[in-house]
Write a structure and sequence with these properties.
The complex is a heterotrimer.
Chain A: H1 2-13, H2 16-38, H3 70-106, H4 108-123, H5 126-137, H6 142-151, H7 155-170, H8 172-179, H9 184-220, H10 232-239, H11 248-275
Helix pairs in contact in A: 1-11, 2-3, 2-11, 3-4, 3-6, 3-7, 3-9, 3-11, 4-7, 7-9, 9-10, 9-11, 10-11
Chain B: H1 2-29, H2 34-39, H3 46-56, H4 62-75, H5 89-124, H6 129-143, H7 146-160, H8 180-218, H9 221-228, H10 233-241, H11 246-271, H12 276-285, H13 289-317
Helix pairs in contact in B: 1-13, 5-6, 5-8, 5-13, 6-8, 7-8, 7-11, 8-11, 11-12, 11-13, 12-13
Chain C: H1 2-23, E1 29-35, H2 50-59, E2 64-65, E3 79-80, E4 83-90, E5 93-98, H3 112-123, H4 129-134, E6 138-145, E7 148-153, H5 160-165, H6 173-176, H7 181-184, H8 188-191, E8 199-205, E9 209-214, E10 225-232, H9 236-244, E11 250-252, H10 260-264, E12 269-275, E13 278-284, E14 287-288, E15 291-295, H11 302-311, H12 314-321, E16 326-328, H13 351-360, E17 373-374, E18 377-378, E19 380-386, H14 390-404, E20 409-415, H15 417-426, E21 431-437, H16 445-449, H17 465-476, H18 481-494, E22 498-511, E23 514-515, E24 532-533, H19 540-543
Parallel strand pairs in C: 1-10, 1-11, 19-20, 19-21
Antiparallel strand pairs in C: 2-3, 4-5, 5-7, 6-7, 8-9, 9-10, 11-22, 12-22, 13-21, 13-22, 14-15, 16-22, 17-18, 23-24
Helix pairs in contact in C: 11-13, 12-14, 17-18
The chains are: A mainly alpha, B mainly alpha, C alpha+beta.
C-alpha cells in the first residue's frame, strides 16, 4: 500500500511540472509561516494619507489605497487561503471517501439513493450553494467557512471511491478470499486504499485549487473572509476603484491566486500523468 | 431506443427532484426568520404577511412547507423579488436568459471550436515544446480567477486604450431609431471582453479533454490499420480519429456547464452584462433570497438538462454506445 | 462591386444622420449624469435620497429659492421661481403671487389650488411625519384666487421665509388629489411624473437609466440641453469608469484619491468644487440592534460614546479621502451652512484618555484577546457601511484599526444601498456610517436630532429634551441668533450621539464642452437648463435626434 503510493509520487516527481508545483507551494508555505516574523503587520496604516504607492525598496509589492504593505497582506492572505483550502479539502476527502465506500459496499437501493443525491448535488453549482448559505449567515467564523466549503465539495470524490470499490469487488481474488472465509469488508478496504489513493489524490489536489478560487471569489463578493483579515479576493475587491491609477494593488493578489492554483494544478497534472503515463 | 430514452428522461427528472429537495432543505437550514428572507428590508402590510404565510406555509411543519413549496413550483410560481418588488422571480429570470444564452453560446463556440482545435494540434504534436507550453498556458488560464481577469481587461482595453466599452450589453445612448447594423456592431463590441474573459479561464478543460481523448483514439487498432492502408495523415486525423472523440467531448459538456455558470456570475457582474449571472450577483448584494433561490433552481435544471442532451447526443453520434 | 452595392445605402445613412443633426440647433446637446443610487421615486413627498432630489429638482419647481449667499435667514436674498413676487403682510403672514406663465407638463396652468393642496399634504403628520416636522410652525395655507396664496405662521422666526418656500415643491392637484396617500408610491403618476420644471419625463429603464427631455415651453426659458439621461451605477468604480470612457458627462462627489488625478490627465473633463450641505458621521444607535424597546447594551452609556470619539484621529480620515476638499465636522452643520462657523470644536483626539475612560466604566480586557469586556459582553460593534460610497469604504477600515488600538472590536458590515437603508431605518445597526445632505437651513437639524424626529429620520432614537429646547430657542429666535446656535450645538455635542467626521466640498467632473455651467449647492442641477454646448465641441450624442414627442 505505502509502496505503491511512494511509487506514484516518485513517478510524479520525474515530471518538471511537479517540481514547479511543489516549489511554488513550498515558497508560499514558507512565506506564510515566516511572514509575521519578517514583515509588517498587514493591518498597519503607517501613512494612510499617502495612499497607494508603487513598488519600492521598502515595499516590494507597493502599498494599497490605505498605505498597507501589499507584500505583508499577500502573505497574510496566503496563510488564510492555504489553511482554509487544505482543511476544507481534507474534510471533503473524508466525507467523500466515507460515502463512496458506503455506497459501493452496500450496493442495492442504498447505493442507488446515495448516487442519486450525489448526481443532484453535482448539478447545483457549488458557488450557488455557498451563496445561499452565506447570504443568510452573513459573517461567519473561519471554522464555519471551512465547514461549508468542505461539505459542498465531496461529491466527486464519493463517485471516484465508489467506482473503485465496485471495481475491486469484481476482481476474482476478492471472491476467492471471501470463499476462503476472509471478511469481505477487510478484503475490500485493504485493496481499496492503494488503488483509490492515486485518483483520489489527484482529485484532492485539483480540489485545493478549486477551493482557493472559490474562496477568492466569495471574498470578492464581500462574503467569506471578513476584514481586517487579509484575503486575496478581498484585496482585489478593494483595488477595483484603483485599477487605472494603482494597478499593482490588484495585480499582486491576483497573481498570488494564479500562482498557487497553477502550482496545485501542475502538481495534479504530474500526478495524473504518473497514474496513467499513456495519456501524458 | 425509446425505452432507453424514456428511462433516461425519468432519471433526469428524478435527479432534478432531488436537487429541489436539497435546495429546499438548504433554504430551511439557514438561521433567522424565513419571513425576513422573503421580505427583506421592505415595509410589508399585515395582509401581505398573511398571504406569504399561506403561500409558503411558514408556521406549519416542515412537510407542509415542502408541499407548499412544490405546489408553487408546479404552478410556475417562484415567489416575488425583494429588491424589485413586485416583480415575480420567474419574469426576472426569463428576461435575463437571452443575454446569458448569447454570452454562454459564444463562449461555447470559442471553447469547443478553438479549444478543440488546439487540443487536436497538441495531441498530434505530443511531447513537443508547442504541446508543453500550451498546456502550461492553458493551466495558467484555468488558474486565473475570472473576476480578476475581467477587471484587468477592463482596466487596459476599455479604460486605458479605449478600444472597447467597459460595461453593459448595449449602449443606452443609442438612438431608438438606430439600424440593425449599428445595433449588431454595438452588441458585438460589448460582447468581446466578457466572452474573452470566460473563454480564457475555461478553455484549458476543453483542450486537455480533447487532447487526452485523441491520444486514446490514436492507440486504437483501426487507426493503425487506416494508416497502413495508406490514407493521408490528415484524412486519418479528421475523418477517423477526431470523429471518435466526439463522444467524450459531448460528455464534457455536462461538466463544463457548471464551470461556465460559476464564471459568468463574476464576469456578468463585472461587465454589467444583463444576464442571469449579474441577476444573481445583484441578488446577493440586495439580500434578495427569492431571486437567488430561483436562479439556483433554474441553473440546476439547466445542468441536468444539458447532461440529458449530452447523453442523447452521443448515442446519436455513436449508435454503438448505449449507456445504462 | 460589393463596395458599390454598399455605397448607396451608406450615403443615405450619412445623409439622414446629417439631416437629423441639422434639425437640432448647434448649441443644443445631450447630458448624461451618473448617480450612485437609482432615483426610483423622484417625486416630491417621496424623495428621501439624493439622486431622487436631484432629478425631482429638474421636474418640479419651488415657490422661490435662496440667493447666492445661501443665508437662509435673510428673506430678501431669495429669488423667484413659481412665485413671481411676494409681500410680507405682517410678521406672521406671507402672500405669494404665482407666475401666470407657469404650466404643468400636460399644459394646465399651475394654480394656487395646487400649492395649497401640496402644502396640506406635506403638513399632515399622519402621512409624512418627517416633513410635517419641518412645517410645524405653519398654521394655515389658503388660496385667495387662482394665483395668490397666503401662508400664515404660528410664530415669527428668522427662517420663516425659508420654510415657506423650500420644503414644498407643489404637485399637480388635478392629477394626484384622488390618489390615497398610501398608494401614492406605487401609483401611475410616480411611474411617469408630470411636473412644471425645465425638464419633462420621457422614460425609465429600471435599474439602468432614466431619461428626461427639455421642456421647450418652460416659462423661464427653454433648455438648450434638451436631452438628459441619468445612469445608475452602483459603485464608485463603475461610476468613474462611465465618466472616463466617455459614456457620461457629469459626475459628482469623487474623493481625490481616485478622482482628480485620473481626470486631470483627461482634456475632455474638468472638475470644479463647491461647498456642500453634506456631512459624514458615525451614528450611534441609542437602542438595541433591531429592538427599539431596549436601550443599547453598550452605546447607551454616554462615556463609552465619548471614549470612541476621543479615540479617533479624524484628520488622517479626512485627508485620505477628501484631501483638502473637506473640513472637519463637529455637528450636523455643513460647509455651506451659514452657521458653520458657529460650531464649537468636538472632543479632542486623546486615545490615552479614551482608554482611561473605558476602564473607568468597567470595560477591561481580561482575557488578553485585545478586545475589552464587561460582565462577559465584549466591546464589539457592527459598523454598517454602504458599498456605493467610496469615501466611507476608505474610512471604515481606518476607523476599525484606530478603535482596535483602544480595545474596541469593530466589524465592518458592507451592504448595498437599499439593504443598508432598510437596516438603518429599522434600527438594525450598532454604528451606522451615515452621510446626509442637510437642508440648506440649519433648522433642518430637528428632523434627525430631536425627540419628535424619532418617528421620522432620527433612526438612532436619540432624545434629549433639554437639547431640544435649546435648538428650538435657536430656531425661533430673531435676535442673538449666533449665540443661541452656538449654545444649541454645544449642548448636542456634549451628548455625543454621533461622531461627526467631515463636511466635504462637492467635487464635480464635467465635460468641457458645456458652457455656462453653474451649480447651486442646495439644488445641484436646477440651473442646468441654462447650460449649453459649445457648437465646435459637439459629440455624437449631441447630434442625435430628439426622442421626446
Amino acid at each position: 500500500m505505502i509502496g505503491s503510493l511512494a511509487e506514484l509520487l516518485r513517478r510524479a516527481w520525474a515530471h518538471p511540472s511537479a517540481r514547479w508545483g511543489v516549489g511554488i507551494l513550498l515558497a508560499f508555505a514558507l512565506a506564510a509561516a515566516l511572514g509575521p516574523l519578517l514583515l509588517d503587520d498587514p493591518s498597519a496604516m503607517p501613512d494612510v494619507v499617502a495612499g497607494a504607492t508603487p513598488p519600492s525598496a521598502g515595499h516590494p509589492f507597493g502599498t494599497d489605497h490605505l498605505n498597507r504593505d501589499i507584500l505583508a497582506r499577500v502573505v497574510g492572505g496566503a496563510r488564510v487561503s492555504l489553511a482554509v483550502a487544505g482543511l476544507a479539502v481534507l474534510l471533503a476527502l473524508t466525507l467523500g471517501s466515507a460515502v463512496g465506500l458506503a455506497a459501493g459496499y452496500s450496493g442495492g437501493w442504498v447505493d442507488a439513493a446515495l448516487m442519486r443525491v450525489v448526481d443532484a448535488a453535482l448539478a447545483i453549482p457549488r458557488l450557488f450553494v455557498l451563496l445561499l448559505l452565506l447570504v443568510v449567515w452573513e459573517r461567519i467564523p473561519l471554522g464555519a467557512l471551512i465547514l461549508f466549503l468542505g461539505t459542498t465539495g465531496w461529491f466527486g470524490t464519493s463517485r471516484l471511491v465508489r467506482g473503485e470499490v465496485l471495481r475491486i469487488r469484481q476482481e476474482p481474488f476478492v471472491a476467492a478470499a471471501i470463499a476462503l472465509g476472509a471478511s469481505p469488508w477487510r478484503t475490500i478496504t485493504r485493496h481499496l486504499l492503494p488503488n483509490a489513493a492515486g485518483p483520489v489524490l489527484v482529485a484532492a489536489t485539483l480540489g485545493v485549487g478549486d477551493v482557493i478560487l472559490l474562496e477568492a471569489g466569495l471574498s470578492f463578493l464581500g462574503l467569506g473572509i471578513q476584514p481586517p483579515t487579509p484575503s486575496w479576493g478581498g484585496m482585489v475587491l478593494d483595488a477595483r476603484p484603483y485599477l487605472s491609477s494603482a494597478p499593482w494593488t490588484a495585480l499582486f493578489p491576483g497573481a498570488a491566486i494564479v500562482a498557487t492554483v497553477l502550482a496545485v494544478n501542475l502538481l495534479g497534472d504530474a500526478l495524473s500523468a504518473a497514474l496513467d503515463p499513456r495519456s501524458a | 431506443m425509446t425505452r432507453w430514452l424514456l428511462r433516461r428522461v425519468v432519471q433526469a427528472a428524478l435527479t432534478f427532484a432531488v436537487a429541489i429537495v436539497l435546495l429546499f432543505f438548504l433554504m430551511r437550514a439557514a438561521p433567522g426568520d424565513p419571513l425576513s428572507r422573503l421580505v427583506g428590508e421592505r415595509n410589508v402590510s399585515e395582509q401581505e404577511i398573511a398571504v406569504l404565510r399561506a403561500r409558503f406555509g411558514l408556521d406549519q411543519p416542515l412537510l407542509s412547507q415542502f408541499q407548499a413549496f412544490v405546489a408553487g413550483l408546479l404552478r410556475g410560481d417562484l415567489g416575488v423579488s425583494i429588491e424589485q418588488y413586485p416583480e415575480k422571480v420567474t419574469s426576472l429570470l426569463a428576461a435575463r436568459i437571452p443575454p446569458t444564452l448569447l454570452l454562454g453560446g459564444t463562449v461555447l463556440l470559442i471553447n469547443f471550436g478553438v479549444g478543440s482545435w488546439l487540443g487536436v494540434r497538441q495531441a498530434v504534436r505530443r511531447g513537443s515544446r508547442f504541446d508543453r507550453w500550451l498546456t502550461r498556458l492553458a493551466l495558467a488560464g484555468y488558474a486565473t480567477p475570472s473576476f480578476w481577469l475581467g477587471l484587468v481587461l477592463v482596466a487596459f482595453v476599455s479604460l486605458r486604450w479605449r478600444l472597447l466599452p467597459a460595461a453593459q450589453m448595449t449602449d443606452p445612448l443609442l438612438p431608438l431609431d438606430a439600424g440593425f447594423g449599428t445595433r449588431a456592431v454595438d452588441l458585438l463590441r460589448h460582447l468581446i471582453l466578457p466572452a474573452l474573459t470566460l473563454s480564457l479561464t475555461s478553455m484549458a478543460l476543453v483542450m486537455r479533454h480533447q487532447r487526452a481523448a485523441l491520444l486514446t483514439v490514436f492507440r486504437l487498432d483501426y487507426i493503425t490499420a487506416a494508416r497502413a492502408r495508406g490514407l493521408t495523415e490528415r484524412r486519418v486525423l479528421w475523418r477517423h480519429a477526431w470523429r471518435n472523440t466526439l463522444v467524450p467531448m459531448i460528455t464534457l459538456l455536462g461538466l463544463w456547464l457548471p464551470i461556465l455558470v460559476t464564471g459568468s456570475l463574476f464576469v456578468e457582474a463585472i461587465f454589467n452584462w444583463p444576464g442571469l449571472g449579474s441577476l444573481a450577483a445583484n441578488a446577493i448584494n440586495a439580500r434578495d433570497y427569492p431571486v437567488l433561490m430561483g436562479t439556483a433552481m433554474l441553473v440546476s435544471g439547466a445542468v441536468i438538462f444539458a447532461g440529458l442532451l449530452a447523453d442523447i447526443g452521443y448515442t446519436v453520434a455513436d449508435p454503438r454506445v448505449r449507456p445504462t | 462591386m460589393i463596395a458599390g452595392r454598399l455605397l448607396a445605402p451608406l450615403l443615405m445613412l450619412f445623409g439622414a444622420a446629417a439631416a437629423e443633426a441639422r434639425q437640432r440647433p448647434p448649441d443644443h446637446g445631450t447630458i448624461v449624469i451618473v448617480v450612485g443610487r437609482e432615483p426610483s421615486t423622484p417625486v416630491p413627498t417621496l424623495l428621501g435620497q439624493k439622486s431622487n432630489n436631484d432629478v425631482s429638482d429638474l421636474l418640479f419647481l419651488r415657490l422661490a429659492h435662496p440667493g447666492r449667499g445661501l443665508i437662509t435667514a435673510d428673506e430678501k436674498s431669495f429669488e423667484p421661481e413659481l412665485a413671481r413676487s411676494w409681500t410680507r403682510r405682517d410678521s406672521l403672514t406671507l402672500v405669494f403671487d404665482l407666475d401666470p406663465r407657469a404650466r404643468w407638463h400636460d399644459g394646465r396652468p399651475v394654480t394656487a389650488r395646487d400649492v395649497v393642496w401640496s402644502f396640506n399634504r406635506m403638513r399632515d403628520p399622519a402621512i409624512d411625519p418627517a416633513n410635517a416636522l419641518l412645517l410645524r410652525y405653519l398654521s394655515s395655507v389658503t388660496a385667495v384666487n387662482d394665483s395668490r396664496v397666503v401662508l400664515t405662521f404660528r410664530k415669527s422666526y428668522s427662517e420663516q421665509f425659508f420654510d415657506a418656500t423650500y420644503h414644498v415643491q407643489p404637485l399637480p392637484a388635478h392629477l394626484v388629489d384622488t390618489i390615497p396617500p398610501e398608494r401614492f408610491a406605487t401609483s401611475a403618476f410616480v411611474q411617469s411624473p408630470v411636473g412644471n420644471g425645465p425638464y419633462r419625463w420621457v422614460r425609465r429603464e429600471a435599474g439602468r437609466s432614466l431619461e428626461l427631455a427639455g421642456n421647450q415651453t418652460f416659462f423661464l426659458g427653454s433648455p438648450k440641453l434638451d436631452r438628459v439621461v441619468i445612469l445608475t451605477a452602483g459603485d464608485a468604480d463603475a461610476q468613474m469608469n462611465l465618466l472616463l470612457d466617455g459614456s457620461a458627462d457629469v459626475y459628482e462627489a469623487l474623493p481625490p484619491v481616485s478622482g482628480p488625478p485620473r481626470i486631470a490627465g483627461n482634456p475632455a473633463l474638468r472638475f470644479q468644487t463647491q461647498p456642500s450641505f453634506g456631512v459624514l458621521f458615525l451614528l450611534f444607535n441609542q437602542r438595541a440592534y433591531g429592538d427599539r424597546s431596549r436601550p443599547h447594551p453598550i452605546l447607551s452609556d454616554r462615556d463609552v460614546r465619548l471614549a470612541l470619539a476621543m479615540a479617533l484621529d479624524r484628520t488622517p480620515l479626512l485627508h485620505s479621502t477628501f484631501g483638502a476638499f473637506a473640513r472637519l465636522a463637529n455637528a450636523p452643520s455643513a460647509q455651506a451652512h451659514w452657521t458653520s462657523t458657529l460650531v464649537p470644536n468636538g472632543p479632542a483626539y486623546d486615545p490615552a484618555g479614551a482608554r482611561t475612560l473605558l476602564e473607568r466604566r468597567g470595560w477591561i480586557d481580561r482575557d488578553g484577546d485585545g478586545v475589552r469586556e464587561k460582565d462577559g459582553v465584549p466591546l464589539s460593534l457592527r459598523l454598517n457601511v454602504v458599498a456605493s460610497s467610496s469615501p466611507r469604504l476608505i474610512m471604515a477600515p481606518q476607523v476599525q484599526e484606530q478603535l482596535r488600538r483602544i480595545g474596541v472590536r469593530i466589524e465592518i458590515v458592507r451592504l448595498e444601498g437599499p439593504v443598508w437603508n432598510g437596516r438603518r431605518n429599522k434600527g438594525e445597526f450598532d454604528i451606522d456610517f451615515s452621510s446626509s445632505v442637510l437642508d440648506p437651513s440649519p433648522t433642518g437639524i430637528v428632523q434627525s436630532w430631536s425627540c419628535a424626529g424619532r418617528s421620522g429620520t432620527n433612526v438612532a432614537q436619540y432624545c434629549n429634551p433639554s437639547v431640544d429646547s435649546l435648538i428650538e430657542t435657536a430656531i425661533s429666535s430673531t435676535r442673538d441668533l449666533e449665540r443661541n446656535w452656538r449654545t444649541a450645538y454645544a449642548s448636542l455635542q456634549r451628548d455625543v450621539p454621533a461622531i461627526w467626521l467631515a463636511t466635504p466640498s462637492v467635487l464635480f467632473a464635467v465635460h468641457t464642452r458645456y458652457r455656462g455651467v453653474t451649480l447651486r449647492p442646495e439644488s445641484l442641477y436646477s440651473t442646468m437648463w441654462r447650460w449649453s454646448v459649445d457648437p465646435t465641441r459637439r459629440i455624437a450624442r449631441d447630434g442625435t435626434s430628439q426622442l421626446a414627442q
